[in-house]
Amino acid sequence: IEFQQMKSFCEKPCIIASAKGIYLTDVYGKRYLDGLSGIYVANIGHGNEQVIEAIRKQQERAFFVAPLHAVADITIRYAKRLSEITPGPLNTLKLVSGGSEATETAIKFARQYHRQSGSPAKYKVLSLYKGYHGATLGALSATGLAGSRKSVFGPFLEGFLHLPPPTCFTCPYSLSYPSCDALCARMLDYLIVNEGPESVAAVMIEPIGNTGGIVTPPPQYLPIIRETCTKHNVILVFDEIITGMGRTGN
Ligand SMILES: Cc1ncc(COP(=O)(O)O)c(C=O)c1O
């Protein structure tokens, strides 16, 4: 992995031979409890028989349908079922292969939307320090982590700015909730106004931060962010790569 040194890994590599349920087994037969479920991608367990059977059946029917030319019937069924469980009117889907591709696609959507709806100068993307949005260069530009995950890969894309996060346990403004009146959320308006609302395309945040520390914002936070984005015609993108698909229990 690009942000870890291979040298120390190669001295004592962990090489997994198989996985079932919540356990991984290495090439020497040692068993590990997979406490992170992959990194959340195997949250219904490794080697799930229903998943294996569904993949096998589909491989027999059609291996790949190029989206340039057509769509697979199973993709339409999947999209329909997914839009039945997503909230409210969230029923326009673009299916991609991973988190970084998803966040970059969202950024492209936001810019395209503004181009096609009379605000072509909106291109900037605002996100949070400590936020993580992926490892590819666009997603990494939105990522707000310093250190090995980001620093050595710069320079990053132009037009990506960051705000202090709602880390109440170590408040960037040295204030306490609720007397702070959610200053960290209100600073979004300040940033947009001072960057020029005509230049800001999107705000991207994790509803609950993960990689930079588990950051659950105070109750006022997200409504203020929502209101501010609406006020300035800025697309609000929730990066739910970690929190989506029932992983918070909902
Ligand atoms: C919130 C968030 N967004 C995006 C990503 C990037 O996902 P991927 O590693 O699938 O590209 C991650 C990965 O952990 C993530 O935690």
Short description:
Keywords: Pyridoxal phosphate. With 250 residues, the protein is an alpha/beta fold.
**Spatial shape:** globular
**Strand residue content:** 5-15%
Write down the domain tally. 3
What oligomeric state is this? single chain
CATH hierarchy class name of the largest domain:
Alpha Beta
Low-pLDDT regions: none
- The total count of strands amounts to 7
Task: Name the structural class.
Answer: alpha/beta
What is the helical fraction, as a range of percent?
25-40%
Element-by-element helix/strand order: HEEEHHHEHEHEHE
Distance between the termini: 31 Å
Radius of gyration: 21 Å
Order of strands across the widest beta sheet? 5-4-6-7
* Overall residue-averaged pLDDT value: 95
Second rung of CATH, namely the architecture of the largest domain: 3-Layer(aba) Sandwich
Pfam family, one: Aminotran_3
Keywords: Pyridoxal phosphate
Protein name: Aspartate aminotransferase family protein
Family: Belongs to the class-III pyridoxal-phosphate-dependent aminotransferase family.
